[in-house]
Design a protein that fits this description.
Blueprint lengths: L1 H13 L1 H15 L1 H6 L1
Length: 38
């Protein structure tokens, strides 16, 4: 769990936009309507 948390923080520090992009892409793939609502 420590490794996961560290990786997440490191990624956010390096490319916070990239992290957000991944989340949006995931949401769109699961529910394209979610993106429209947001």
């Amino acid at each position: 769990m420590s490794n996961l948390g560290n990786d997440s923080a490191d990624k956010q520090n390096h490319h916070p936009l990239n992290e957000k992009s991944v989340v949006i892409t995931s949401a769109e793939a699961l529910d394209p309507l979610t993106l429209s609502i947001d």
